[in-house]
Amino acid sequence: MATQILRPPHRGVPKQQTSWLLKGTWRKRAVAPMTTNALHNLLHRELVESGLMKPDSVGPSNKYHSNVTDLIRESSWRDGRWVLDGP
Q: Where are the domains of the chain?
């Protein structure tokens, strides 16, 4: 199953102060509160460290981050690294 990137709503709390939630069949992983751009930078770095993206790949920006989100949706977080979901 695909991984979802979620930010659960918290009433009365600014978005930047709420944690992110990465959820898939591999369970859930909470990520510290940060901006959307900072989250995509973190995920990009983790994908590079896991070997799913090349070190010289284009980094995410405010407008362009589909390369990171698309790969995250096709991957699972296992043993501290991202692994592609196989057929």
A: 1-55
Tell me the one-letter amino acid at 68: V
Structure confidence by residue, pLDDT tens digits, 45-62 = 999 999 999 999 988 988
Long-range CB pairs of 79-84 (<8 Å, 24+ gap) are: 81/46, 81/49, 81/50, 82/46, 82/47, 82/50, 82/52, 83/50, 84/52
Tokens (6 digits) for 46: 């983790």
Q: What angle do CA 39, 22, 17 make, to 5 degrees?
A: 50
| Structure-token match 């990009």, residue found | 44
